[in-house]
Each structure stands twice: as C-alpha cells, then as structure tokens.
C-alpha cells in the first residue's frame, strides 16, 4: 500500500496537471486504468501516463496536450458505460453473433419500474438493433437457455469481476459475443424518459445492447455508442454504419 501511494505521488508530481486536488489526481489515474487508456504496469512510466492522457483527449476530441485540466475532469465525472473506450477495434472483439435468432432472459429488475416496463423496454431496444443487423430475439424463462442474460445488481455481483459503484458514474456494462450478457446498476434512479437526477432505462439499454451485438464505443458525440450517458431513442448513422459493417447487412 505504501509503495502504491508513493507511486501515485511520483506520477502526479511529474506529469502535467492544472490546479487539481490530490483526490482528483487519484480519480484520473483510476479512470484511465478502468476505461482502457492505461495499464497498472504502464503507470510506472511517466511517458506512458502522458500518452494515456493524450489518448483520452483524442477520443473525446479535446486538445491533445497531455495535461489534465477541468475539461478532462468534467468528462470523467459524467455518468457512463462501464466498458473500456480504448480498444484496438471499433467492433469490440470483431466478432458478430454467428446465428440469426438469439435468446435472452431477464432476471432481477429494479424496483423503480414494473416487470412489464422493463420487459417492453429491453424488447424495444433489441428490436432496433435486430432491424439493423438482421437478427431476431426470443425471450426465454430460464437463463440457462439464453444467449443474453440481463439483470440489475448492486456492487459486486455474479457474472463478472467488475463491481458497480452505486448511484452515478457507471450505469451498466455488457459483454461482447459470444457472451452478450448485460448488467444494470440497481442503485441508479431508473425511469422511462427524462427526469432530473434520473436515468432513462431505454437509452442505457440501447447502448449496452450495442456491446452485446459486438460494437465498441464510438467517438461520435451523437451516436448511441458514445460512452457517456445521454437520452437516445434511435440509432445514429455512425451506429448504423458500424452494425452494418460488422454483420455485412449494408
């Protein structure tokens, strides 16, 4: 633990930051690791850390300075998807589903919405991706029979090693084919539509199911697959181009 704290100190003294607190510096370090811009091994290198900042700035179309300022911190504090941004392929692991009819199961849901509301929302989001990728989806009652298992959970949960962080920040995450499972953070204030301090389930589901179809994050601000949260009801042309290319449906 002492060594880690010392490492933080070395990095943050040498690498450029503009008027940020020690807490913010630590948050930057954690963010860059969590979302794929930096590995813990690379964090030992001042050069690698600066390169990670530049990759982040390039992804979010900020001036590429290698220096953290309030602009970077503002993006890092937004609600977002838990899947890393910085991948070698625009299409995640570059793997589409090899069958046309997929099954899905919905497990535990948020108490803030009814089972019917959650079911209809997931179905509508799946249908949008299905129309673009020429896929169909069938809901099944047993998760053992499902290609895609969907549920809400808090903190550490089954199915992966990445814990949710409570209200705010990470809203959900999904896996690429041939897994495709999708997890929502139970602690969010889920609603359907807009609301101050609330999170629209459909918008998050549409985004996360894009990962379940095989897509990684987009750098296009208005795209459904952009990593930070926004209300989205339909695919952007960037999303359509990506899914068409992956499934060869254009």
Automatic annotation (TrEMBL):
<feature type="binding site">
    <location>
        <position position="188"/>
    </location>
    <ligand>
        <name>Ca(2+) 3</name>
    </ligand>
</feature>
<dbReference type="InterPro" id="IPR006026">
    <property type="entry name" value="Peptidase_Metallo"/>
</dbReference>
<feature type="binding site">
    <location>
        <position position="217"/>
    </location>
    <ligand>
        <name>Zn(2+) 2</name>
    </ligand>
</feature>
<feature type="domain" description="Peptidase metallopeptidase">
    <location>
        <begin position="93"/>
        <end position="249"/>
    </location>
</feature>
<keyword id="KW-0645">Protease</keyword>
<feature type="binding site">
    <location>
        <position position="181"/>
    </location>
    <ligand>
        <name>Ca(2+) 2</name>
    </ligand>
</feature>
<feature type="binding site">
    <location>
        <position position="188"/>
    </location>
    <ligand>
        <name>Ca(2+) 1</name>
    </ligand>
</feature>
<feature type="binding site">
    <location>
        <position position="185"/>
    </location>
    <ligand>
        <name>Ca(2+) 3</name>
    </ligand>
</feature>
<feature type="active site">
    <location>
        <position position="208"/>
    </location>
</feature>
<dbReference type="Pfam" id="PF01471">
    <property type="entry name" value="PG_binding_1"/>
</dbReference>
<feature type="binding site">
    <location>
        <position position="166"/>
    </location>
    <ligand>
        <name>Ca(2+) 3</name>
    </ligand>
</feature>
<feature type="binding site">
    <location>
        <position position="183"/>
    </location>
    <ligand>
        <name>Zn(2+) 1</name>
    </ligand>
</feature>
<dbReference type="Pfam" id="PF00413">
    <property type="entry name" value="Peptidase_M10"/>
</dbReference>
<dbReference type="InterPro" id="IPR021190">
    <property type="entry name" value="Pept_M10A"/>
</dbReference>
<dbReference type="InterPro" id="IPR036365">
    <property type="entry name" value="PGBD-like_sf"/>
</dbReference>
<dbReference type="GO" id="GO:0030574">
    <property type="term" value="P:collagen catabolic process"/>
</dbReference>
<dbReference type="GO" id="GO:0030198">
    <property type="term" value="P:extracellular matrix organization"/>
</dbReference>
<keyword id="KW-0862">Zinc</keyword>
<feature type="binding site" description="in inhibited form">
    <location>
        <position position="81"/>
    </location>
    <ligand>
        <name>Zn(2+) 2</name>
    </ligand>
</feature>
<feature type="binding site">
    <location>
        <position position="173"/>
    </location>
    <ligand>
        <name>Zn(2+) 1</name>
    </ligand>
</feature>
<feature type="binding site">
    <location>
        <position position="211"/>
    </location>
    <ligand>
        <name>Zn(2+) 2</name>
    </ligand>
</feature>
<feature type="binding site">
    <location>
        <position position="160"/>
    </location>
    <ligand>
        <name>Zn(2+) 1</name>
    </ligand>
</feature>
<protein>
    <recommendedName>
        <fullName>Peptidase metallopeptidase domain-containing protein</fullName>
    </recommendedName>
</protein>
<dbReference type="GO" id="GO:0031012">
    <property type="term" value="C:extracellular matrix"/>
</dbReference>
<feature type="binding site">
    <location>
        <position position="207"/>
    </location>
    <ligand>
        <name>Zn(2+) 2</name>
    </ligand>
</feature>
<keyword id="KW-0732">Signal</keyword>
<feature type="binding site">
    <location>
        <position position="225"/>
    </location>
    <ligand>
        <name>Zn(2+) 2</name>
    </ligand>
</feature>
<dbReference type="GO" id="GO:0008270">
    <property type="term" value="F:zinc ion binding"/>
</dbReference>
<dbReference type="GO" id="GO:0004222">
    <property type="term" value="F:metalloendopeptidase activity"/>
</dbReference>
<dbReference type="GO" id="GO:0006508">
    <property type="term" value="P:proteolysis"/>
</dbReference>
<keyword id="KW-0479">Metal-binding</keyword>
<dbReference type="InterPro" id="IPR024079">
    <property type="entry name" value="MetalloPept_cat_dom_sf"/>
</dbReference>
<feature type="binding site">
    <location>
        <position position="147"/>
    </location>
    <ligand>
        <name>Ca(2+) 2</name>
    </ligand>
</feature>
<keyword id="KW-0378">Hydrolase</keyword>
<dbReference type="GO" id="GO:0005615">
    <property type="term" value="C:extracellular space"/>
</dbReference>
<feature type="binding site">
    <location>
        <position position="157"/>
    </location>
    <ligand>
        <name>Zn(2+) 1</name>
    </ligand>
</feature>
<feature type="binding site">
    <location>
        <position position="165"/>
    </location>
    <ligand>
        <name>Ca(2+) 3</name>
    </ligand>
</feature>
<keyword id="KW-0106">Calcium</keyword>
<keyword id="KW-0482">Metalloprotease</keyword>
<dbReference type="InterPro" id="IPR033739">
    <property type="entry name" value="M10A_MMP"/>
</dbReference>
<dbReference type="InterPro" id="IPR001818">
    <property type="entry name" value="Pept_M10_metallopeptidase"/>
</dbReference>
<dbReference type="InterPro" id="IPR002477">
    <property type="entry name" value="Peptidoglycan-bd-like"/>
</dbReference>
């Amino acid at each position: 633990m002492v060594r880690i704290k010392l490492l933080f100190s070395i990095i943050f003294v040498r690498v450029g930051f503009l008027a940020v607190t020690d807490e913010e510096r630590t948050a930057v370090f954690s963010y860059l690791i969590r979302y794929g811009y930096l590995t813990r091994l690379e964090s030992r290198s001042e050069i690698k850390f600066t390169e990670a900042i530049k990759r982040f700035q390039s992804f979010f179309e900020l001036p590429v300075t290698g220096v953290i300022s309030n602009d970077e911190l503002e993006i890092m504090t937004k609600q977002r998807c838990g899947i890393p941004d910085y991948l070698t392929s625009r299409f995640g692991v570059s793997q589409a589903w090899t069958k046309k009819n997929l099954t899905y199961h919905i497990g535990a849901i948020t108490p803030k919405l009814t089972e019917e509301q959650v079911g209809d929302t997931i179905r509508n989001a799946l249908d949008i991706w299905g129309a673009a990728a020429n896929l169909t989806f069938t809901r099944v009652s047993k998760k053992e029979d499902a290609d895609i298992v969907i549920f809400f959970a808090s903190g550490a949960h089954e199915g992966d090693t990445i814990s949710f962080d409570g209200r705010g920040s990470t809203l959900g995450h999904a896996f690429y084919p041939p897994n495709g499972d999708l997890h929502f953070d139970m602690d969010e204030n889920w609603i359907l539509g807009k609301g101050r301090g609330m999170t629209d389930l459909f918008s998050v589901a549409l985004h996360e199911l894009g990962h379940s179809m095989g897509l990684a994050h987009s750098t296009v601000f208005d795209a459904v697959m952009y990593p930070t949260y926004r209300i989205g009801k339909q695919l952007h042309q960037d999303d359509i181009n990506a899914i068409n290319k992956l499934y060869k449906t254009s």
